[in-house]
């Protein structure tokens, strides 16, 4: 994908504006930013003393943990499906 085919979107996360450039649709980029913002707000609500860096790191850790759980579930389903197809 060339630069002219990439989407450029300005989003707000934790009261700061960021310009994101990517192949995903503008709606997808905005949705991802909104979810990150929500997770940061959730963590800040439980730990108001955390600074932005701490919030960002904990958000990344939480998100990656969720991703790995989903990936493991997906891999298990694919493996189960393959076993059933062999029967």
From TrEMBL:
GO cellular component, one term: cell division site
Cell compartment(s), UniProt: Cytoplasm
Record key words, sorted: Cell cycle, Cell division, Cytoplasm, Septation
InterPro entries noted in UniProt: Bac_CellDiv_Activator, Cell_div_ZapA-like, Cell_div_ZapA-like_sf
Cell division found in the keyword field: yes
GO biological process: one example: division septum assembly
Entry superkingdom: Bacteria
UniProt xrefs under Pfam families: ZapA
Transport recorded as keyword: no
Function: Activator of cell division through the inhibition of FtsZ GTPase activity, therefore promoting FtsZ assembly into bundles of protofilaments necessary for the formation of the division Z ring. It is recruited early at mid-cell but it is not essential for cell division.
Subunit record text: Homodimer. Interacts with FtsZ.
NCBIfam families noted in UniProt: PRK14126.1
PANTHER family: CELL DIVISION PROTEIN ZAPA
Protein name: Cell division protein ZapA
Organism expressing this protein natively: Alkalibacillus haloalkaliphilus
Lineage per the UniProt record: Bacteria, Bacillati, Bacillota, Bacilli, Bacillales
